[in-house]
Design brief:
Blueprint: E1 2-5, E2 11-15, E3 18-22, E4 44-46, H1 52-55, H2 58-65, E5 68-72, H3 73-80, E6 86-89, E7 94-97, E8 100-106, E9 123-129, E10 134-137, H4 148-153, E11 158-162, H5 171-181, E12 185-189, H6 201-210, E13 214-216, E14 223-225
Parallel strand pairs: 3-4, 4-5, 5-6, 10-11, 11-12, 12-13
Antiparallel strand pairs: 1-2, 1-14, 2-3, 7-8, 8-9, 9-10
């Protein structure tokens, strides 16, 4: 699997030739100004909730690439009304896709569309790939005991966790969450984009190391193999 970071909480995972884009917020993000949105290809776009900093580029990319939206039912319906094909599910549900299975799991957050209308409940995703890897994309969650269920259900290879604090977990809570979900390999997200989310990278990684975790903070545009 290859994973490319496009800033904030946006990643592109290439899994067995299928391109899976998470929470695209690129054009409005000044930190991602060098990312060529027009060059991003996707087969599926997974959206964790309806906030603008997670769906801003979803319509544009989906219409250009033909990617299907995969999200909570209300979000799939919202994009369906714009002529975009999608798969809507709900909390606790599993969706089988060409690259593997996507399990919709709880996230402790809020969710509304940019116009303030209801966007269903926020979720995270546990993805069990056909290649044999399992990972957790947390979306925007605070620390919640529901995360402990993930360790009961799955053996994770890595987890993508928000670490910016203020609107989500900070680093300290994210490390507790990592214990609860059973992950030692972590990739940070939802940090630095806005002033309240700016973190000390070295301090965050040192705290993670002291807790027995490997926290990777990717540069925007960086691609890694997992």
């Amino acid at each position: 699997m290859q994973l490319t970071y496009f800033g904030h909480s946006c990643f592109l995972a290439t899994i067995g030739g299928t391109r899976v884009l998470f929470d695209p917020f690129i054009r409005p993000n000044p930190l991602a100004k060098d990312v060529d949105v027009d060059a991003i290809e996707a087969d599926f776009i997974l959206l964790s909730h309806g906030h603008g900093d997670h769906i801003a580029d979803a319509e544009e990319i989906a219409k250009r690439t033909g990617a299907k939206i995969v999200a909570i039912a209300e979000i799939a319906g919202y994009f369906g009304a714009k002529g975009i094909d999608g798969i809507g599910a709900n909390l606790g549900g599993k969706v089988k896709l060409p690259f593997g299975t996507v399990h919709f799991v709880a996230a402790a957050h809020s969710s509304s569309f940019p116009d303030g209308s209801y966007a269903g409940v926020p979720v995270g995703f546990v993805i069990k790939t056909n290649e044999g890897q399992t990972f957790y994309y947390a979306g925007d969650t605070g620390l919640t005991y529901d995360l402990k269920l993930i360790k009961d259900w799955y053996q994770l290879d890595f987890a993508l966790l928000p670490i910016g604090d203020h609107y989500t977990m900070g680093v300290t809570d994210a490390l507790v969450a990592a214990d609860w979900v059973g992950a030692t390999e972590l990739i940070g997200m939802h940090y630095d984009t806005f002033p309240p989310l700016v973190i000390d990278h070295a301090a965050a990684q040192a705290e993670a190391k002291a807790a027995g975790k490997n926290l990777r903070l990717l540069a925007i545009g960086e691609t890694i193999s997992l």
